[in-house]
Amino acid sequence: MSDHGTTPRKPPARTWTRLGLGALSGLLAGGAALAVAELVAAAVRPQAGPVVAVGAAAIDRTPTAVKDWAIRTFGSDDKLVLQLGILAVLTLFALAVGAFAVRRRRAGAAGVLVFGAVGGAAALGRPDATGITDALPSVLGAIAGAVLLYFLAGLVPAPHRDVPGEQGEPGEGWDRRRFVIAATAAAAASAGAGVLGRALSGVSGRDAVASRENVTLPPPGSPVPAVPRRAQLRVAGVSPFVTPAGDFYRVDTALVVPKVDATAWRLRIHGEGVTRERNLTFDDLLRRELTERDITLTCVSNEVGGPYVGNARWIGVRLADLLEECGVRPPSAGGPADQLVARSVDGMTIGSPVEDVMDGRDAMLAVGMNGEPLPFDHGFPVRMLVPGLYGYVSACKWIEDIELTTFDAYDAYWVKRDWAREAPIKTQSRIDTPKPFARLEAGTVMVAGVAWAQHRGIDKVEIRVDDGPWQEATLAAEDSRDTWRQWSYAWRAAKGGHTLTVRATDRTGQVQTDKRTRTVPDGASGWHSVVVTVD
Asked: Quick one: CA dihedral 57, 60, 61, 62, positive or negative?
């Protein structure tokens, strides 16, 4: 259109060049800020890094429904997805701030400092914060990023202001070579700082790794009874009776797995009804009589038919014995405390009923798993577990403090987020084979899986094909009432599409309910079904 038309002019090509150079400057500044923060965090502690601190704060503030969806959708990769999401947001923020900085250098640099303020506040707000030094990684990283952005933005060509009709276009003759050298040097320095920070973070955990390698678990004073020979079915596709540590589910809020040096670890037991407060070392626990038991653990986030259940051989100290030595009595015996609050080194709090911990079941402070010291992912050096209770009310990993209190006086982490205070594991069963939507050949098909009702035991498992009658499955031998139980059913499969459904009955006579509920507030319920096609 003519100069008198109303169609707005497109930004000159050189304006886009300036914005692109600014965005690149912002990206380099953001990378420098993260790299310096990583390096400083290696000296302070890895959990104080901005990505970890902001990610942990995001986890704490995420609505329960969203958090539950993330676990269902991404499983143990949910933390990786969160961190990648944070990095994506930071990338967009850096690009925008950089583009703005070519017009307002000081304001753009100040925008990078916002990064430091958010990260520092997140680090200081963590329950495991160790002091003002936790803010240093974010603050120093932001200062480095702001200085770099201010410098690079100053190298971007300024627009001409003296040629009519050419406002906003870059000037001629700018020092392209100087910008390229500066940007390349910044990228190289950031990469070096990041690599060095990662290396130093690894060094900081070497003492913990060495302490684990030096652990020799004493033979248990109360060894586990031999597993019945027929507890493991010879059916392809069914879960192994003992879950290898590498395959055991992991659901927690730790973005960085704590690396705790066993030689420096301490456990404090205190609170209401404690007449003799104790401070225990790792060696103190190893010198006590150890109990070895096969126990199946289940996460409350496990959907019907889900994977967050596993069976392992645990060795540790009976928790009830420790509490009794401290003078603790359960409420049924007149004790004032009805809740045991376990605290982790990362600030997690888990509340367990004192009555359940001291009712004779094999609640323990575990130091070993499947014949080895606990893996770091599963709580080394010490974790707590209570058979029959979902993990969020019993299975504190990296435990360092036990406080006796009441449910009325204190709400643990998950209770504050709409989960139930008490949560015994519900009777559940799962079809492991055939898999959903499998195509099978007509004839005899082995249907098999696992069922669990910890601290009650499984008495019966039944299978239903389509809307037919319930047929009793064959149970594998029972190890103990605290472990899952395998089952199988020889199905004469006819051609066509079919729905296989399973249900279990525990030793109290309670039949697994068909009422379908979600995981919140105290665990999912319902029957597990798979749809298959028989050719």
From this structure: positive
List pLDDT tens digits, range 273-294: 999 999 999 999 999 999 999 9
CA–CA dist 41, 20 (Å, integer): 31
User: What element of type H or E holds 116?
Assistant: helix 105-124
Tokens (6 digits) for 2: 């003519």
- Using only C-alpha atoms, the chain has a radius of gyration, in whole angstroms, of 29
CB within 8 Å of 521: residues ≥ 6 apart: 418, 419, 420
Amino acid at 461: V
Per-residue pLDDT of 475-507, as tens digits, reads: 999 999 999 999 999 999 999 999 999 999 999
How wide is the angle at C-alpha 31 spanned by C-alphas 30 and 32, nearest 5°? 90
Question: Using CA atoms, how far apart are residues 307 and 464, in angstroms rounded to an integer?
Answer: 22
C-alpha 471/C-alpha 323 separation (Å) is 46
Instruction: For residue 403, give the nearest of 318, 317, 344 by alpha carbon.
Output: 344
Cα atoms in the Cβ-side hemisphere of radius 13 Å centred on 258: 25
The tokens describing 305, both together, are 């038919």
> Is residue 87 classed as helix, strand or coil in its secondary structure?
helix
pTM: 0.87
Phi then psi for residue 493, to 5 deg, are: -80, 125
Q: What is the largest CA-CA distance in the chain?
A: 95
**What percent of the chain shows pLDDT beyond 90?**
80
Contact 141, 36 (CB under 8 A): yes
Q: Within 13 Å and on the Cβ side, how many CA atoms surround 5?
A: 6
Alpha carbons 393 and 415: distance in angstroms, whole number: 9
- One-letter amino acid at 77 equals D
The closest of 437, 425, 439 to 506, measured between CA atoms, is 425
> Cα–Cα distance between 249 and 309 in angstroms, integer?
7
Is 413 in contact with 488 (CB distance < 8 Å)?
no
User: Does residue 300 contact residue 518 with C-beta atoms inside 8 Å?
Assistant: no
Query: Where do the H-state alpha helices sit in 157-221?
Result: 176-204, 206-213
Question: Rounded to whole angstroms, how far apart are CA atoms 353 and 455?
Answer: 15
Distance CA 263, CA 215 (A): 10
Residue where the block lists tokens 């406002």: 167
Using CA atoms of 258, 264, 270, 274 in order, give the dihedral in degrees to the nearest 10.
130
332 DSSP 8-state letter: G
The helix (run of H) or strand (run of E) holding residue 487 is: strand 485-493
461: β partners: 504
